[in-house]
Amino acid sequence: MTGSAWRYAGRTFLWDLATVFSLGLALPWRMAALERYKIQNTRFGDLPGDFVGTGGTLFRRGAALWALTVGLLIAGGVLALVVGDAARVGVLVGLVVVMSFAAPIAYVLFRGTVMRWLIEGIRFGPVALESRLRRDTVFGCYLKWAAATTAFGAVFGGIGMGAVALWAGGFDKAGRAFASPSTTYITMFVGLLLFYLVFLLGLGVLKRYFLDRGLWVAAANSTTVLNLAAADHVVAAGEAAGSLGEGLADALDVGAI
Fold this sequence. Notes:
Elements: H1 5-21, H2 27-40, E1 43-44, E2 47-51, H3 55-82, H4 85-121, E3 122-124, E4 127-131, H5 135-178, H6 181-221, E5 223-226, H7 243-251
Antiparallel strand pairs: 1-2, 2-3, 3-4, 4-5
């Protein structure tokens, strides 16, 4: 991989400004420009990379989702301005409730659209990718993750409430009878800290398995590589990377997408 990090950062900053001032309309072209810069500065051996996806294609696929989110915000804001003071609060509350459901759904569906668009746009010489990834498959991965996270939170919440009840019901008094107050508070703090760390670890594991792994599996199972024979005689480019640096980067997830 070649290219300049400073040039990429500059392009990102300018495209971010365009996206903000266009109320998100420039987002597809931003994603296409940045992805094109990355892939065109990437090689698989001596096969040059390219990205043929266009902002126009992504815009057409995601225009309805943009209208669902930004359009609802604009319509709700205009309605709140024209109605009376008594109804304005109700309109704003209703807008918040609707957006709390519409925005996450639109985001998940748009991510499914983007994933397929990204896969289909990648080229390495004559080697191309064809994707059959469906948005409802991506939505299903998010639903599994949400359900598992909710169940995990409910179980941990029940355990936490039970521990508090036991502590208040007798363990606190018993502990104070055999230990000093400072030792009791330190023990309680360490227990809460361990409980919190295990809870965060569990959330991370669930996200890795149901969402990150689930999306990669869904993308891989729905992707076909075209003209793969063109890579049979690919020649390695550049110098070999040291095993220490590569292993350390993998261990720390450096550069992971």
